[in-house]
Write a structure and sequence with these properties.
3 strands, alpha+beta, 97 residues, 3-stranded mixed sheet, 2 domains, YefM-like fold
Length: 97
């Protein structure tokens, strides 16, 4: 991992960003010889944080939908109701055409 101190970063930010875009290797930023931060490429950031967070939220919503039961004796799930509504909508749409 490449290392750069805060002063060097301030003086050559453009160069550091270009190198980060080219090779994709994270850059360790030090202040007073102590690690203070890490710069990562946008691709790495998306893969590690943004996309993973969105996937986690999607899975949570699907899990909640699947777990939700409507107060009916036949234990129809919300997902079943949504599929039924979609089917009715498609039938109505087709009959209008």
């Amino acid at each position: 991992m490449k290392s750069v101190n805060a002063l060097q970063l301030r003086q050559s930010l453009g160069k550091v960003i270009r190198e980060l875009e080219e090779d994709g290797a994270p850059v360790l930023v030090c202040r007073g010889r102590k690690p203070a931060a890490v710069l990562v490429s946008l691709k790495d950031y998306r893969e590690r944080f943004v996309d993973r967070d969105a996937d986690d939220r999607r899975r949570a919503v699907v899990t909640k939908l699947k777990a939700t039961r409507v107060g009916r004796s036949d234990q129809t799930t919300t997902l079943d109701l949504l599929r039924g509504l979609r089917g009715q909508y498609l039938l109505q749409r087709d009959s209008l055409n």
